[in-house]
What we know:
Layout (H helix, E strand, L loop, with lengths): L7 H6 L5 E7 L2 E7 L9 H8 L9 E7 L4 H9 L5 E7 L9 H13 L10 E6 L2 E8 L2 E8 L1 E2 L2 H7 L3 E4 L7 E7 L3 E6 L3 H5 L8 E3 L7 E13 L2 E10 L3 E3 L3 H15 L6 E6 L2 E9 L5 E7 L2 E7 L2
Parallel strand pairs: 2-3, 11-13, 14-16
Antiparallel strand pairs: 1-2, 1-19, 3-4, 5-6, 6-7, 7-18, 8-10, 9-10, 9-12, 10-11, 13-14, 14-15, 16-17, 17-18
Amino acid sequence: MTVPTTSVPHVLAALAGLPFAKGHGTGNDFVLVADPDGALHLGEAEAAALCDRHQGLGADGLIRAIRSRRLPEGEAVLAEEPGAEWFMDYRNADGSLSEMCGNGVRVFVAFLLDAGLVELAPGEVLPIGTRAGVKRVERREDGFAVDMGPWTFIHPDRAAAEASDATVTAVGLDVARAGLSVSMGNPHTVVALAEPSELAGLGLHTAPLVDPMPPHGTNVEFVVPSDPLVAAGVGSITMRVHERGVGETQSCGTGACAAAVAIRYWAGAGAPDRWAVGVPGGAVGVSFVPGPDGREHVELSGPAVIVAHGTLG
Length: 313
């Protein structure tokens, strides 16, 4: 939803005294709130007001740290993984619920550590509940790595037959381009561009038009492969993204994974399993690894930083 500008101060006034933190993963930024027992009402209006970049705190999304047992979605997570004590309750900047955010889950774990809610030494793994299931986050010396689970094509028959399943129209492109839709627990449509100038010329303040649109909307990634595509066994791509419910963001973790899935698929046999993905806010790593369920999983790695703490006044 969009909160009218005149309503933002009133919504925030009702949240006066709320402690919060601000964090980001490669420029994808979040307001984070600890609510272990689910005592706070942080719905669509509250999330949209907090994330408002003019009259609120400003962020790409709101993350609430709540114990899994306090949410129906969390109860389902605990049935899968009893050790997933904490649930990442995530809303986009417009207040809408989102299944998952790859940058957000790294920042979420950094927040839990910063707030003293968990202990996690380098090399240890923490299971986290999300609306896309359990995500296992490993702390590393230079950040965090997340097992994002298996990837799937949203339209597998068309992907196999045509290597694309949608057309995408965007401001700055002369004609509609072919796209490939990938699910990382949330939906993505990936478009390959030939030149960095095409990427730079996109107007992503306006949502791209995707036909057909996945049932719950989609994030759209525009990707330029590097030349050469592979160096020292690592593939390299650069991307920009328009996130549903947010607009253009500095980075999108699940989007980086989806972009690597699509480019690797298009590259064909012999394409590497390790990828470096450049985004406006920095760089993340994407790796394809065998999963414990026998399926191929995607691992996302990168930094997470808590930059500020405050109390809403």
